[in-house]
Structures are given as C-alpha cells and as structure tokens.
Amino acid sequence: MPELRIKKLGLIACQVLWRELTYFAAQSSAEISFFFQPQGLHNDPDKMRRDLQAAIDRIEAEHEFDQLIFGYGLCSRGIEGLKSKKTTMVFPRAHDCLTLLLGSRSRQEQIYCEHPDAYWYSPGWIETGTQPSLERRDRERALLRQKYDEEQSLWLHEQLSGWGKNYHKAIYLDFQIGPREQWIAYTRQCAQELGWQYLELKGDPTLVRNLVNMEWDENNFLIVPAGIELKLSYDDGLMKCRNI
User: Fold this and answer.
1) How far apart are CA 51 and CA 61, in angstroms?
2) Phi/psi at 10 (5° precision)
3) What is the mean pLDDT of residues 59-70?
4) pLDDT in the model for residue 128
5) What average pLDDT score do residues 90-108 get?
6) C-beta contacts of 33-37 below 8 A and 24+ residues apart
7) Sorting pLDDT into bands at 50, 70 and 90, what band is 130?
8) Could you give the C-alpha distances from 150 to 93, 132, 138, 162, 163, in angstroms and in order?
9) pTM score of the predicted model
10) pLDDT at position 222 over 70
C-alpha cells in the first residue's frame, strides 16, 4: 500500500485574516499549522519586518515544513528583506489584506477607483475594534482626557481624527462565512452613526483559497527559495527574489 504523503505548511499571517484563512485551510489537502501575528504591524514597517523575521527564525528552529506560506501583502513594505534559512517561502502578490479579500490586484484597483472614499469592514477588522465608529471615537477621547484637560483633549481629537473627512462610505466585504449577520449589522450601525453610505461587496476567495491549496501560479504568487531575500520590484509583480 503506498504511503500517504501529506504536505506540511506553516502559515504566517495577520490576525485580521484568521477567519477566512482557517475556513479555506480546513478544505486543503495540506496539513497547515497557523502562526497568526497581531493586527497593526504595518503601522511600523521596520518593527513588522523584525517581528516577522523573528517568527520565521523561531518556526524554522522548532518545526519542519515543506513551505512557509504568508497571509501578507506588501503592507507598507513590512515584508521587504524577509529570508528563511531552510524553507521555501510563498507570498501572494498583494498590496495588502484587501487584495486577499477582494481576490486580485486588478479587482482591488477597479474598486478603489469606483469607491475612493470608502472605509472597509471585514470580520477580522471589526474584531480588532479599530474600525470607525462612535464607540472608537469615545474610546479615543477618553484616552486623551487621561492626559489633557477637556478643551485640549477635544482639540487634539479633532486634529487626530481629521482623516475621517475623506470617507463617506462603509463597505462590508462579505465572504458569507461565520456569523455574518452580526458583522453586517455592526457595519450598518457604524455607517449610520457616521452619516456614511452603507454598501456590501462580495469577497472573492481566489487568492486565499489558492494560497492554502498550493496553487501558486507565477502571476499571483512569488516563491522565494531558502537563503534568498524577498525584494520589492516596483512593477505590476510587486515583489521578486533578490539576485544572489
């Protein structure tokens, strides 16, 4: 009887994508171990790079995988320079998590053009508690009041929240998994509180599904051999392997 050889993958990804990735990973023929990283690393790209490299080094020291796959896009250049010692790495050619949720770079670019004033909501983003809402506003104001008087805190909050004037839509990306009704209701509520238009768009699982199913075509994925650094390419491919 032939021996069953199951591929073993280590998945390093942002916590924001945990629901979508685990859902489709459960349908993969591979055995996948998850190593989710905290949301928000992209806000400090140098720290993100250090933390991801430390995760790679730690995982390689403690595990043996056929490949390490990543649930990250460029993410403010936070993946630039990553390198493994002994395991091939696979990265989706994505700008950020929205590319993964929308299914392709081309669809993301099209929707950005159609909705340049939209803020995006997904299960993972909602669960971080960082999406625009009155609850977030009140929480931020309370933190400022701990350091400043009422007048100063109101002025500072107005300056810090000025970015919100660029947004007029809340778009929920629906993968039709999990308790979606509560996430849709939350996004609707946020839109109503902020005076924004509410929209829903269907998520496209193509990139997520292909990532965990080992369907790594060159147009949508970069395969980085062990010992080679990932480098940004500043063209349609977004990334490449650094020349030896």
Assistant:
1) 15
2) -105, 125
3) 98
4) 82
5) 97
6) 33/8, 33/9, 33/63, 33/65, 35/10, 35/11, 35/59, 37/12, 37/13
7) confident
8) 46, 22, 13, 18, 21
9) 0.90
10) yes
Q: Sheet holding 197-202: strands in order across?
A: 118-121, 169-174, 197-202
Strands of the sheet containing 8-14, edge to edge, are: 31-37, 8-14, 67-71, 88-92, 221-224
Which residues does 225 contact at the CB level (< 8 Å), separation at least 6? 88, 241
Report residue 161's pLDDT band, with 50, 70 and 90 as the boundaries.
Answer: low
**Among candidate residues 141, 142, 122, 143, the one with its CA nearest the CA of residue 190:** 122
Closest-CA residue to 17 (of 175, 132, 145): 175
> What are the b/e assignments for 29-57, b being 16+ CB within 10 Å?
ebebeebbbebebbeebeebbeebeebbe
Write out the two tokens for 128: 């971080």
